Amino acid sequence: xxxxxxxxxxxxxxxxxxxxxxxxxxxxxxxxxxxxxxxxxxxxxxxxxxxxxxxxxxxxxxxxxxxxxxxxxxxxxxxxxxxxxxxxxxxxxxxxxxxxxxxxxxxxxxxxxxxxxxxxxxxxxxxxxxxxxxxxxxxxxxxxxxxxxxxxxxxxxxxxxxxxxxxxxxxxxxxxxxxxxxxxxxxxxxxxxxxxxxxxxxxxxxxxxxxxxxxxxxxxxxxxxxxxxxxxxxxxxxxxxxxxxxxxxxxxxxxxxxxxxxxxxxxxxxxxxxxxxxxxxxxxxxxxxxxxxxxxxxxxxxxxxxxxxxxxxxxxxxxxxxxxxxxxxxxxxxxxxxxxxxxxxxxxxxxxxxxxxxxxxxxxxxxxxxxxxxxxxxxxxxxxxxxxxxxxxxxxxxxxxxxxxxxxxxxxxxxxxxxxxxxxxxxxxxxxxxxxxxxxxxxxxxxxxxxxxxxxxxxxxxxxxxxxxxxxxxxxxxxxxxxxxxxxxxxxxxxxxxxxxxxxxxxxxxxxxxxxxxxxxxxxxxxxxxxxxxxxxxxxxxxxxxxxxxxxxxxxxxxxxxxxxxxxxxxxxxxxxxxxxxxxxxxxxxxxxxxxxxxxxxxxxxxxxxxxxxxxxxxxxxxxxxxxxxxxxxxxxxxxxxxxxxxxxxxxxxxxxxxxxxxxxxxxxxxxxxxxxxxxxxxxxxxxxxxxxxxxxxxxxxxxxxxxxxxxxxxxxxxxxxxxxxxxxxxxxxxxxxxxxxxxxxxxxxxxxxxxxxxxxxxxxxxxxxxxxxxxxxxxxxxxxx
Length: 786
Ligand code: MTE
Ligand code: LUZ
Ligand code: MOS
Hints:
The chain is 30% helix and 24% strand. The chain has 786 residues and is of the alpha+beta class. The protein has 3 domains: 195 residues, Aldehyde oxidase/xanthine dehydrogenase, molybdopterin binding domain (Aldehyde Oxidoreductase, domain 4), CATH 3.30.365; 339 residues, 2-Layer Sandwich (Aldehyde Oxidoreductase, domain 4); 148 residues, Aldehyde Oxidoreductase, domain 4, CATH 3.30.365. Strand 19 and strand 20 form a beta hairpin. The longest helix is centred in the C-terminal third of the chain and has 28 residues. The radius of gyration is 28 Å and the shape is globular. The site of ligand MTE has 19 residues, from helix 17.
């Protein structure tokens, strides 16, 4: 073990007393840096284990004529070759609608769509087997853009609407109007661990599936359904993921199905691990959007009416797209009050892999669309965009109801924006921009502040629940299991902290065990940033059930009738590893001793906790209700610098301020904030998905798809927490942190838009998102040409 790991260990050891609120290193920090934290493909091979891979569709759209498998089957070492014919009657699956074939059947939906599974004794035999498969198919014209899908009326699900007031009339009567069409690109999740799964048979036709998934229950359910098993015959286990970012909320299903089918057919263990290029080509991403918008406003910048029509690229099947669109409609207000607004949403069907969850889940596209409009109005009125934003921000006592009817309580938006403006010296720096831009002939500079208010809770009510299994052992140590999955975000660390504090023991007395459907059933995906809110609360609930039994028992032990002290559980305290009666200072016994004695007295030291989010309710049909328990809030100021000749962009300074309540682990949360922001910045400035006219993804590897590198992190990057302990809704007054900071990345895009507004012509080049060098150069050139 190296010196750094030792230091980390020391920091953990010295942590006695309370754990919550301390920056305890990530649960697996040492494992991550030493390689001793296994991911799926690090698990030891079983002796009979097969290598699994697949052959995919050669066309984005078309029909299968015939598939020739003979040559593949003859390859030495190939054990089985399977198609949809081997699946049985349930080849169709899906998280919301059952519309996605597991293995292509007749119709081809996207390039690389799994068609034939091959299992082999060696990697070489697998490759040769896949090579020898001959797919005869006819190609048809694919639909590869939202615009084309709209033209052909290729849609998934109904058109949805959220509306308040009378936007039509409000816009018509407004003194000023603007309208436009805004193009927003998709984004690859780019987790480091590709999709991966291992399955092997158990007794009574059981299957054990190790999957890199955010949702063990989804894997269990889909494997059971597609393979014709009952749920109690399938166990899904996930120790950790090497990143997920939403990309494993549903899309871990196909690889898990492949190995499960092979294991069922052969009676042997089977493993699949996508290589990076395959993963990028065949799995879904953040949805590209097109937004047609129309806004009416007053000369002072007050918005009086807004209409946005959102269309998203859903890909070839529904996946989570309609839920993603729902979150878009619920975030199009961002942090602004609109008396008259209408947001429509329609998912489009195209010939790319089904698009899916990605950090922010439709929220980022909504916020980008709204902030584009804000920047446009500011530019048009020639007023500072910050004043415009403040003017339209939700109020505390009035102007505080969202278009869907939820009261925005706990609103700190104006305060956050003002505080950040102060700490980032915003006004002073903005005042200097015209001068800088008129003298600097090399670079163009821009600054923008964008706010965010992110609704916390699944918008699908039933998903807002969690259970936890808490086992206390007779030496006073504790194992906790929940349905929550660890993808690097620090969920397990936070659960350890929460449970340690409940029992008043040290952090290292608690371990979070692998997520498994065997211990926690009917779980929700670890998503919507609510992992800790839900699973942490369930773990606390389970701990409290045990603690209550222990307190009753301890009360008996400490009672001393001769001193007039009757047994009183209310006076039992669990702190510092000692259990005591606060009425008798110094009387305590070690927690471990109490546990041991409790077992001898036949007191149950295990419990199952449960939590369901109170109060959330949203009516999809009317578009009204309270979908969220509370909002995580924040704002970002970004400054950009653009090379006037090449369009190349740099981001010299960023300031972030976020209200994440009382942080359970400040450094883990700071990692979420900085990482989330940079990931969002990548989406809005650099990451670009390029397809050829046949539907091949051209940007399918790190060489052609540019995620932010360490050199892209702003040289001046200030991140701070907005102090807030008013969130009584959530465990230990914390707030969800996972997704919201990604939406702050929009500030970098808005700053580019701001920079371009300093060009001499009044023509609006209608900057798209992402603002890549190429896109910026287009705007610069258009402007120069009049
Ligand atoms: N952080 C890391 N390191 N890796 C990830 O894959 N996913 C994000 C966020 N932070 C992710 C991450 C997404 S999309 C969500 S919804 C949350 O973590 C989920 O975890 P939580 O609810 O426990 O915060
Ligand atoms: N998944 C989901 C999510 O099913 N519903 C949601 O509201 C959600 N929000 C964010 C991320 N994943
Ligand atoms: Mo995150 S997109 O909710 O997995």
